[in-house]
Amino acid sequence: MKNRVEELRKGRGLRQEEFARAIRVSRQTVSSIETGRYSPSLDLAFTISDFFGLPIEEIFIHERKDMP
Q1: What letters, b where the CB count within 10 A reaches 16 and e where it falls short, cover 32-43?
Q2: Which residue, 34, 45, 54, 61, is the most exposed by fewest CB within 10 angstroms?
């Protein structure tokens, strides 16, 4: 799943460590979300959404695969 977390975090002038502390996760979790290696739980996605004051769908971009 693509996302804009890194873009939004940097736009606020935050380091990964600072952002991680603010949303109560590890820096490694933030890194994994930003690189797309980890998709956050719905609860964490809402926490990130609340932090940036944006709807989830403006942060996380679901790419639909063609269905047969």
Answers
A1: ebbeeeeebeee
A2: 61
Which band of pLDDT confidence, cut at 50, 70 and 90, is reported for residue 63?
confident
pLDDT (0 to 100) of residue 68: 62
The pairs formed by 46-53 with CB atoms below 8 angstroms and a separation of 24 or more are 47/23, 48/5, 48/23, 51/19, 51/22, 51/23, 52/8, 52/12
Measured in degrees and rounded to the nearest 5, phi and psi for residue 5 equal: -60, -50
Are 4 and 59 spatial neighbours (Cβ–Cβ below 8 Å)?
yes
